[in-house]
Design brief:
Helix 3 runs parallel beside helix 4. This protein has a two-stranded antiparallel ribbon with strand order 1-2. The protein has about 180 residues and is mostly helical. Helix content is about 65%, strand content about 10%. The chain starts with a strand and ends with a helix. The chain folds into 2 domains: about 70 residues; about 80 residues. Keywords: Coiled coil. InterPro entries: SGNH_hydro_sf.
Length: about 180
């Protein structure tokens, strides 16, 4: 609502009423808030874009590192494939033959035997034969490390399982020499 005050024959002066003034002030405040909100949004957008760029660069750096590690791992696997030689022998006789046929000196030899032998041989005889094999290996290959894998528990026969346990205790005595 506008109040008019006459000052003369053709002059009119507008005087805003208090509600219109308050309405104008509120519109001004809203425009100011909208402007501040727009600025805050722009700042937030810039911060997020900067953070996104940094994370992208970090991700690329990590991806490069992973790719380099993959290459190194591939080379290591290739070297291992070339340097690991696995021989399977199911009896002590077969194991002795394979040991005699070794052409180059290994760094480490892993022996997992006696599980099959214990089904039909005396545990003490098996340990004696295993001891002779280890002595042969040490004599032939002076710098070798010998790893002996103990017989695994058996579920097919309590006698074989007991022989394996007896054999394990005998092997521990041999390894202590």
């Amino acid at each position: 609502m506008i109040l008019r005050q006459n000052r003369g024959p053709n002059t009119a002066l507008s005087v805003p009423c208090p509600l219109e003034r308050e309405n104008g002030e509120l519109k001004c405040k809203i425009q100011h808030i909208n402007h501040e909100t727009t600025l805050e949004k722009e700042l937030m957008k810039n911060k997020l874009e900067t953070k996104c760029e940094l994370l992208t660069q970090k991700n690329k750096t990590q991806s490069d590192k992973i790719n380099k590690l993959d290459l190194v791992l591939g080379e290591i696997n290739k070297e291992m494939e070339e340097s690991v030689h696995k021989v399977t022998a199911y009896t002590l006789d077969e194991t002795e033959k394979e040991l005699q046929n070794l052409e180059s000196e290994p760094n480490v030899i892993v022996l997992h035997f006696l599980t099959n032998e214990l089904m039909n041989k005396n545990p003490n005889d098996c340990v004696d034969r295993m001891t002779r094999m280890c002595d042969y290996i040490r004599t032939r290959f002076h710098n070798i490390k010998i790893v002996i894998s103990l017989p695994t528990p058996r579920s097919d026969s309590e006698d074989h399982n007991s022989n394996g346990q007896l054999n394990n205790s005998n092997e521990n005595q041999v390894q202590g020499r």
